[in-house]
Design a protein that fits this description.
The protein is mainly alpha-helical and 584 residues long. Helix content is 66%, strand content 4%. It has 26 helices and 7 strands. The chain crosses the membrane at residues 145-168, 174-199, 258-278, 339-356, 386-403, 415-438, 471-492, 504-525, 531-551.
Length: 584
């Protein structure tokens, strides 16, 4: 807007701002006028920034509301339980009850343990689809979480009761374990698909706004950056919870598996109480009826017409002669198309999850092949969450702000690609460690042979267990880029009425990764496993490069896709509900 449009002559504005301009050249006058016009076009605080301000001002994130922190606490308790419990499964299943190879229970060997633990991971990431459908169509996210918490508690109770020494000696261990992991997997799946979108639902702003900070600097409050911060903190809470593995391996070794599982049961009960007692603080959105069913109907219309816009009422009216009576509008189809973009991006994730799954299965076995010097082999897993807890604040408080000050937008596609590449470094390092194990005595490429038994227990080859640490650190850093960005992408690209379902599609890629890992189980023996690590390193690196070159154009479309939610987040859902009411 020019000065003249405000009823002020440009020369008067120049005088008011800079005093008389005696003898100034025409160019200088033009510069003064240009400066005054810019001053008058500045957006007031609280308003949306103009195009120049979006480009020139620094973008910042907002602080989280209290309700978001409460959801983070719930997730912390659930992850404390999940990791503290499942991190012991490899030893619980692999080693015998007699203690000849260290404390164990079921004695099914390396391949049997890897097979069952991998199945558990697979099951935990298939069941989120059930939780998503229940939440989006019937109960809503909050009620679904509460009900599935009850299922989870039942599974934990079975696990505790069948892991006590008397139950194991009577043969109840295997049946109880299988029943427990099936029920726990159903419970955690129902929670997983809903708790991640629930925490982001607590943040209300959907449009950018100009603000002046305490230092007097004008900045742009960017909702996309706040969502990124929410999921960084959410993931931090996950990994604080997973530090339960600092305690449960010692409880396993010194008391028994049942004591570690009981601790996990008690912690999850605390999380369930937080969910129930914090009900009045949460922003809870109701379910939208048969939205998922209608989404699949719309997808079918896209397929048979070979046109992404075919389900739109306006398109059908233009091509069929009349406006069809469908329970959606054009905006819903635009949102569905955006969700399909996210699902397409997720197609590469199974390779990443194969790599990620190694830290709770084959990495544990690898640690058991080295001399522990008093450190339980399943304790080493803690370096994964510790690295995440260390690097998240570094990135959030130092690296990302510096990049934003330099106006470098580190978009999700770039972060995900980097995560794949860092994960490949973890596998490469694991292969090197495995080679070092095979190069050390007394058993060389047959770790835990009879030559290593001391006082009735196999000690492993003569290489220190701490050498495994960097592999876990690489895995942790890769999670910050790949996994956190995946959660963020699943939320921001999902229609408001399908947040849980799209989240479950993202989690389903983990199940596919577990299925691939299950197929690799026959290679989980010495010395072939070293080459399996090498192959995974190459695969993750190549996929990371391909991912970037295939999807990098989506970085440029990020703001446009996020702008579909610029209105009140309930508006599209309400509009969708009104359409269904008209139909009925």
């Amino acid at each position: 807007m020019s000065a003249a449009e405000h009823g002020v002559e440009p020369t008067q504005t120049a005088l008011a701002v800079n005093g008389p301009v005696t003898g100034a050249s025409l160019t200088e006058k033009e510069q003064i006028i240009d400066q005054s016009e810019k001053a008058l076009s500045v957006t007031p605080d609280g308003e949306e920034p103009n195009a120049d301000e979006i480009k020139s001002l620094r973008h910042v994130a907002e602080n989280l509301p209290l309700s978001a922190w409460l959801v983070a606490v719930v997730e912390l308790c659930e992850r404390f339980t999940y990791y503290g419990m499942s991190g012991l499964f490899q030893n619980y299943v692999q080693r015998p009850l007699d203690g000849s190879e260290g404390r164990g229970a079921l004695g099914m060997g390396h391949q049997g343990a890897t097979g069952l633990t991998t199945f558990f991971q697979f099951w935990c990431y298939v069941t989120p689809i059930v939780g998503a459908i229940v939440a989006d169509q019937y109960l809503g996210k909050y009620k679904t979480i509460v009900y599935f918490c009850g299922i989870y508690l039942v599974g934990l109770l079975i696990l505790v009761c069948t892991s006590i020494p008397g139950a194991l000696e009577s043969g109840a261990g295997l049946g109880g374990f299988i029943a427990a992991i099936l029920i726990i997997g159903l419970g955690t799946g129902g929670i997983k698909s809903n708790v991640a979108p629930l925490i982001a639902d607590q943040y209300k702003r959907k449009r950018m706004a100009v603000s002046t900070n305490k230092k007097g600097e004008r900045v742009v409050i960017d909702p996309a950056l706040t969502i990124q911060r929410i999921y960084m903190i959410f993931y931090g809470a996950i990994n604080v919870g997973s530090l339960s593995l600092l305690a449960t391996p010692y409880m396993e070794r010194d008391v028994g598996f049942w004591s570690a599982y009981l601790l996990c049961l008690c912690m999850f009960a605390v999380g369930t109480l937080v969910v129930i007692c914090g009900r009045k603080y949460y922003i809870v959105r109701p379910p939208q009826g048969s939205v998922i069913t209608d989404a699949f109907k719309a997808l079918w219309i896209m397929v048979i017409n070979r046109n992404m816009d075919a389900p739109k009422p306006t398109w059908q009216a233009a091509n069929g002669g009349n406006r069809p009576n469908v329970p959606w509008d054009d905006h819903f189809i635009d949102e569905l198309k955006r969700a399909l973009v996210a699902c397409r991006v997720f197609c590469f994730y199974p390779i990443y999850w194969v790599v990620y799954g190694q830290f709770s299965s084959n990495f544990v076995t690898q640690a058991g092949q080295m001399q522990g010097h008093g450190i339980p082999n399943d304790l080493m897993q803690n370096f994964d969450p510790i690295s995440i807890i260390v690097f998240i604040p570094v990135l959030e408080a130092l690296v990302y702000p510096v990049l934003r000050r330099m106006h470098i937008r580190f978009r999700p596609i770039s972060r995900i690609s980097l995560g794949f590449i860092v994960a490949s470094l973890a596998m490469m390092y694991a292969a090197i460690v495995q080679h070092l194990i095979y190069s050390a005595g007394p058993c060389y490429d047959s770790p835990l042979c009879d030559a290593s038994i001391v006082d009735g227990s196999a000690q492993g080859n003569r290489i220190h267990i701490a050498i495994q640490t960097p592999a876990y650190v690489f895995i942790g850093v890769s999670e910050i880029f790949a996994s956190v960005s995946g959660l963020e992408y699943a939320y921001t690209k999902a229609p408001p009425s399908m947040k849980s379902f799209v989240q479950s599609m993202y989690l389903l890629t983990n199940a596919f990764g577990s299925a691939l890992a299950e197929a690799l189980t026959p290679a989980a023996y010495d010395p072939a496993i070293m080459w399996m690590f090498t192959g995974l390193a190459c695969a993750s690196f190549v996929v990371g490069i391909l991912f970037y070159f295939i999807y990098r154009h989506l970085n440029d479309q990020e703001d446009a896709m996020n702008a579909l939610d610029a209105d009140d987040p309930d508006v599209p859902a309400l509009r969708y509900s009104e359409k269904r009411e008209e139909e009925n």
